[in-house]
Amino acid sequence: MSPVQRTLKYLRDHGYTAEKTEHFNFYAKKRQDLFGFIDVLAVKDEHLLALQVSDGAHHAGHTSAIKALPVARQLVFHMDVEIWSWSKRGRRGKRKLWALRRESLTAKLLPKKSLLRQKIESGEWPMHTLD
Question: How confident is the model at residue 130 (pLDDT cuts 50, 70, 90)?
C-alpha cells in the first residue's frame, strides 16, 4: 500500500471525504501534484485540508520545497496545509508498524505579522484534529 493510499484510508476512516489529486504525466514521464505540492485534498464540514504525502525519509525535503512555493502562501489563507509521512517504527526486536508523522505548515506559511498566524501560534485559533 502506497503512502497516498494509506492516507486516503486514514482520512476516510476519520470521516473525511478525500481524493487523490496527483497524476502521472506520460509525456513528461513524472508525477504531477495539484499546484506543485498537493497530493490529497480532504473535506469535512467546513475544514479543507491540503496534504503533501511522503515516506518518512523525504519529509524534511518536502517541507522546504513547500515553503518556497508562492502558491502555497496564497492557498494557506483558504485551507490547512500539512505534510504527512509514513514510516515503519517500533522497538528493536519487535514488530514494526506503520506510523504517521503530521506537520502543519499553515502558520509557517502565513506572513509573520499576520493576525491569523499569531492566533494559531498562541493556541487561540482552533486547529482541527483527526483523533
Answer: low
